[in-house]
Amino acid sequence: MMVKGVCGKGAKKWKIEEVVVVVVGFESFLGRKGLVNYGITPIQHHMNFSLSRFVVTSPLLALNPELSNGHKDFNQNHSYPLHRDIYRQEKPNFLKPKFPILFNKPNKTQIFTAISIQETDFPRHSAPKELEKSLVILLSFKIPQNSLVSLICDCPGVLDFQFLKKWEMGFSNFVLLSSSPLMIKSVLEQSKRFQIDPDGFFKSVEVLRGLGFIDGTVSKVLEGFPGVILMNGKEIQRRLEFLAGIGIPRDGIDRVLRSFPGYIGFGVEDRLKPLLYEFKDFGFSVDLISREIIKEPRILSMELGEFSQCLEFLRTLKCRVPIKEKIFSEGEFRAGFEVKLRVDCLCRYGLIRREAFEVLWKEPRSIIYKVGEIERKIEFLIHRMKFNSRCLVEVPEYLGVNFEKQIIPRHNVIEYLRSKGGLGYEVGLKGLVKPSRLRFYNLYVKPYPDCAKMFGRFSGDVKVQSRHPVGLWKLFKPQRYPESKEDVKNTKLFMESLG
């Protein structure tokens, strides 16, 4: 990023004439807040600069095909805070951009250059041309845009031109049939952090091949757990022997490593064996455990004591019989792991474990929903409905209702009425979820015909069709037989005998 502007020595305001930014991805850099997304924020003392021209350029037109000339002007005036001492600090720690920012100041027109932001070995004195060459090399690896931005943000040192040039030559001589761009991204980050050269990496690959792994498995392991290049062959062999010891065949071991490569990073004595003993303590056989691990290798990611907590939760859970049958449909072992996945999902959105278990206890239906469906509901709750995730502790029923048929239509109705000023009070999450479908219709839809189409059911345009043709009940009416005199006589005798 190059910033052109003019400023006197005693000036308190910078007049920025032009900002030129070299970006990896157009969408990833420009957001609603523009430069603020780069992390230019005031800490203590700050001064303002006004922006009159904003130019985004890319070294490769392939990055931004929509920009015909390789650049785009934004003729909008914005004012962003800038730290007073930015041009004096060698490493401004307060900057937290998504991409390294470059400042420099030669001649009359100020061109500031400042690099890096984190305490890393970022190439401070790299010229913009070298950075451009580094980007070209990174792009030649065909790493997806989001992953590339994440790589540069997490490890700015990968922009070192000499480092990338060395690895470009190394990968050109490297033959791996199933190598993927994401594998290259993981290897580059790990190699830069631990100063690993291509020769050391190739030796690790040969170790994995020597253990009998096919290229596809090697690629998945390097992509998901690049730390394997720091391990020796004996350490890896011990992990494989553990899986073989519980009856998992060779193809099953390949499946475990492809689906969950992080398994190689677990210790055998301090993690895997105690976890196996925990499973056995609940009465599960080794055969069942091995079958479940092959089906879902992430079972091995459970912390010690976590499975016990989930299983005890299920054994004391009180809910309707049909729901409990669905929860245990694949067995008690798998049900315990499914609870763990949903607890982790809720914790990712800010709940603590106790609150997550409380939500599942109050709304057991959320256990039978897929994790992706739960995430979808929570994302909608936070980003569209503007509620805090902790509202789930008070209204766990939100996770148990149908997303398409109930949550979206009700939210649309409330938002429409709020925009028209038709609500005399604020409707919270409880008021949105708790009422029955008919009660919600009578409260918010029936008085306002415009909301009928949004809500769908019970609206005037929707006709509820009968499930059977009219008059079908007559076909199922039992045939009536005429009563004979003998039947009447027998009935009277029977009634008299009772008296």
Descriptive account of the structure:
This protein has 499 residues and is an alpha/beta fold. Among the domains are: 2-117, no CATH class; 305-395, no CATH class; 403-470, no CATH class. It has helices at residues 26-29, 128-140, 145-154, 161-172, 181-194, 198-210, 215-224, 233-245, 250-259, 268-281, 286-295, 306-315, 321-327, 332-348, 353-362, 365-368, 371-384, 391-394, 403-419, 429-433, 437-445, 452-455, 485-498; strands at residues 2-6, 14-22, 46-51, 54-57, 71-74, 78-83, 110-112. Helix 2 (128-140) packs parallel to helix 4 (161-172), helix 5 crosses helix 7 and helix 19 (403-419) runs parallel beside helix 21. The longest helix has 17 residues, at 332-348. It is extended and about 105 Å long. One of its GO terms (biological process) is DNA-templated transcription termination.
Question: In terms of topology, how is this protein built?
Answer:
Layout: E1 2-6, E2 14-22, H1 26-29, E3 46-51, E4 54-57, E5 71-74, E6 78-83, E7 110-112, H2 128-140, H3 145-154, H4 161-172, H5 181-194, H6 198-210, H7 215-224, H8 233-245, H9 250-259, H10 268-281, H11 286-295, H12 306-315, H13 321-327, H14 332-348, H15 353-362, H16 365-368, H17 371-384, H18 391-394, H19 403-419, H20 429-433, H21 437-445, H22 452-455, H23 485-498
Parallel strand pairs: 2-3, 2-4
Antiparallel strand pairs: 1-2, 1-7, 3-6, 4-5
